[in-house]
Task: structure prediction
Amino acid sequence: MSTSHLYTLENTRMSVVILATAAFSIIFVGGFGVYLAEHAHPGANITQFGDAVWWAVVTLATVGYGDYYPVTAVGRIIAIFMMISGVGIFALMVATFARRRLQKAESKLGMVTKPRLNLLGQETKTAIKTKVDGIETLTEEDFDTLIVEIKGLRLTLLEGSKILKCPRCEIVYRNKPKFCSNCGLALIIT
Result:
């Protein structure tokens, strides 16, 4: 695993830990607050701390069974806070996992495309760049050498791709279609 993968993994784990800590804190504080507001009120159905914590978990998870619910104004205000927090924590959790998955896909894509950029040695790149920069002063022989180097560069870059050729039309395809767009014949890899 590369360093960037470890950093991304650690960063994601830390985000999950922070969100889990926030969720447990909200559950405990919200449950305790509802317990304090409700337990002595006549007609309240949240009379024990365990019931209050259960209600807080169900509310934060946005399930809302309805077996326990606050009846006081303070309890209902805490319930509103818990509902909004539940939606927010769920959205942040999904965003964290989606970001992790996207970063993983981007790193895989980067690993696939980076080697193609380094097919040529630094000397070849420098030689081509130097000749292109001084193209006005090139002799005919130097210009021919430049053309050969550029053609070599083109072939090197195209080397990894498969070339398909229609045997009937002689049309060359580099994007790997299954059939010829001109005559409809099935293409073969050459």
Summary: The mean pLDDT is 79. Helices lie at 3-38, 49-60, 73-117, 122-133, 140-158. The first strand starts at residue 164 and ends at 165. The domain at 3-117 is CATH 1.10.287.70 (Helix Hairpins).
